[in-house]
Amino acid sequence: MSEVNLIFETSRPGRKAYSLPECDVPQKPIGELIDSSYLREKAPELPEVSELDAVRHYTKLSLRNHGVDSGFYPLGSCTMKYNPKVNEAVARLDGFINCHPYQPESMVQGNLEVMYTLDRLLSEISGMDQVSLQPAAGAHGELAGLMIIKAYHENRGEGNRDKIIVPDSAHGTNPASAAVAGFEVIEVKSDDRGCVDLEHLKEVMNEEVAGLMLTNPNTLGLFETEIVEIAKIVHDKGGLLYYDGANMNAIMGIARPGDMGFDVIHFNLHKTFSTPHGGGGPGSGPVGVKESLIPFLPVPVVCKKDDTYYLDFDRPLSIGRIKSFYGNFNVTIKALAYIFTMGEEGLKKVSESAVLNANYIAQKLKDVYLLPYDKICMHECVLSGYRQKANGVSTLDIAKRLLDFGYHPPTVYFPLIVSEALMIEPTECESKETLDEFINTMRTIAEEAESNPDIVKTAPHNTVVSRLDEALAARKPVLKWKKE
Amino acid sequence: MNVPSNLLFSKTHEWVRIEENIAYLGLTDFAQDKLGQIVFVDLPELNQEIKEKEQVAEVESVKAVAEFFSPVSGKVVKVNEDLLDSPEQINENPYDSWFVAVELSDQSELENLLNPQKYEALLMEEEENH
């Protein structure tokens, strides 16, 4: 594939892709309609191209994308599962796309029913009592959840709790969200099983701590088997438990965060519930809570009285509105479509297959790649490129070499507690044949790391561009086109 | 991994070079190798009072952000501002790329640091545990 020019470079003065009919209403100079202080002096320098040039330009760019629809995408911790097309058809129904958020409640009963029903179903799946669909994505859900925890403590006269405990294996968003919510972050260590170190947790848990954020299964893909004990340690000192729903794909229909002792959870609909993840999604990160926290949920809350749905704004303890209107409503429709399509048994099978696939990959690769925590994993496995490092081949090189074979690489160098980490999440969607092909490719690369390390170290070779200078891109980023 | 014989080391992979009452602080070869290409560094300010084991700088690579803990207490008397513009120096010459020079307020803290032999032993241990 050849280089693609910028659309600005294709531009020629006066070329255009439209022709408007003669104006059939009286015209006035714009200066008479709008105060001159609001008018620009020079026309904006927009690209001027023909329709065909514009279409070709964006078609070429789109062909360079890699998505689940074009190939295997085992990006750990991201659950890049297939987004069923039926979801799109449902979300495009007239009643959904041709309504306005300011329409009176009586005219949008169907839309309110969608939100109410999804709240009920997500509550059921997670063992929570009520869910707000407002947060725009995962980290926004975390922030909302932490604000709820803060409001809860303040309402009990314990607003002095200004610390949040986060494991050293946590997603980076956890400490970031806690900091944004005004908490100080305390790190709790993992033990040699890769789970929360209970003794260390007991040491750091006290009356200044508002709560613990935990992902279960954790980022090593391991189930925190001592979760009941963890919950007790935190609850006994008056803290709350926050569940990061990033890894929910491992436990649907099998275990529920609410039953494990969690008080607050966020879901990533764009992971677990098959709504689009790439291309800006947009995401959707509903936040769910146990009964004692319901008064603090963001407003408005969709409620039902007799057979009528309505938006309840009269909630004095609420953390307030955290998103315009009702969250990414159109995305939540797709999640509801997915849940209805799969059904109870189907969702359970999703998690079973996701876990089976991850373990299959781990077992088929552990003789060539180091498996630092060699036990049954959940929906993802964490291997290490540590052995390959002896030949000067790093995990980054392995990831780049995978591009040559048409794969999106797994997550690399995360979790931070595994050196040269390769975090592979195949999801339930892939066939055994796809997994076998990927396994063979990973074995080929391990062989190359021995016999011909240079081919791995200089990869990728078959892509549009070769290895990019990531350091230069970070140090001196060129973020926009400038006219010479 | 390069471990110069004239330096002291912390368990968190900072090095210390002593010149009379002044300590030059930097990041070890092992640490820069683990981090990979370094793209940003954030340094403490001149005259800032810093404490032993306190986070005083931040190093960002293409892979991760790492905290830099001061191995000693004292007042910052020099800041290597060259690193702000070209943090890649830390990768290229970790032991010439000092972050700050600190006027020591407590010489006895140096006893808490590792000599080169002990630091090398620590690196062996870390390699085994990976």
What does this protein structure show overall?
With 484 residues, chain A is an alpha/beta fold. Chain A has helices at 7-10, 30-33, 51-63, 85-91, 94-97, 109-126, 138-155, 173-180, 198-204, 227-236, 257-260, 329-365, 386-389, 395-404, 432-451, 453-457, 470-475, and strands at residues 130-132, 163-167, 184-188, 209-214, 240-244, 264-266, 287-289, 301-305, 308-312, 381-384, 411-412, 421-424. In chain A, strands 1-7-6-5-4-2-3 form a 7-stranded mixed beta sheet, with helices on both faces. A 3-stranded antiparallel beta sheet of chain A has the order 10-12-11, with helices on one face. In chain A, strands 8-9 form a two-stranded antiparallel sheet. In chain A, α4 (85-91) runs antiparallel to α12, α6 (109-126) packs parallel to α12 and α12 packs across α15 (432-451). Chain A is globular. Chain B has one domain (9-121): OB fold (Dihydrolipoamide Acetyltransferase, E2P). Chain B is built from 4 helices and 9 strands. In chain B, strands 1-2-3-9-8-5 form a 6-stranded antiparallel beta sheet. A 3-stranded antiparallel beta sheet of chain B has the order 4-6-7. Chain B is globular and about 35 Å long. The model of chain B has no long low-confidence stretch (mean pLDDT 93). The chains are: A alpha/beta (484), B alpha+beta (130). Chains A and B meet through α17 of A and β4 of B.
